[in-house]
């Protein structure tokens, strides 16, 4: 069983949760850097002063397009999970990681900023156990087995505006083999 202290886990800095998702997914510091993600933003929208794929202030807050493009540089794909489908039918043996995008409060001190912020985090299986590698956590949270993760994801999907995305290899995306059985609900 994996010891949480040996699981790589980046803690939240600025609005760099997308960067932390990628490095936590790959289990290695600096798999991606802020500079690389900023370069991806520029390549996605080269002629804009205010890039729509990141925070105006340069603090991060990268969108799904940046995560998708970053994963493509490592020959991986991002598949959006239709919440009307059955989470039980995800074939986790073909999924490299599960990325969630959830509503998040943003505060300066005790004052809540009245904007709709989102937060990225990843769940990953490591040596037979699933871990929540949310950068807002002090340390990785061992979730346990497949059924525990399914229950965790079902609960998260009941929350409004939560998105679930699966990191898979291109062949898995093309064949749709990350989903077992038919396409019924």
Helix/strand-derived class? alpha+beta
Q: For the residues shown, what is the average pLDDT?
A: 85
Residue share in β-strands: 15-25%
In the CATH hierarchy, what is the class?
A: Alpha Beta
How far apart lie the N and C ends? 34 Å
Q: Which runs of at least 5 residues are low in confidence (pLDDT < 50)?
A: none
The helix/strand series, from N terminus to C terminus, equals HHHEEEEEEEHEH
- What is the architecture at the second tier of CATH? Alpha-Beta Complex
- Tally of separate helices: 5
Report the count of strand segments: 8
CA-atom Rg in angstroms: 16 Å
Description:
By secondary structure, this protein is an alpha+beta fold. It has one domain: Cathepsin B, Chain A (Alpha-Beta Complex), CATH 3.90.70. 26% of the residues lie in helices and 22% in strands. The chain is built from five helices and eight strands, in the order H-H-H-E-E-E-E-E-E-E-H-E-H. The chain has helices at 17-26, 34-44, 64-72, 146-157, 170-175, and strands spanning 77-80, 97-104, 107-108, 111-112, 117-126, 129-132, 141-144, 163-168. It has a six-stranded antiparallel beta sheet with strand order 1-8-2-5-6-7, with helices on both faces. Strands 3-4 form a two-stranded antiparallel sheet. Strand 3 and strand 4 (111-112) form a beta hairpin. The longest helix has 12 residues, at 146-157. The radius of gyration is 16 Å and the shape is globular. 31% of the residues are buried.
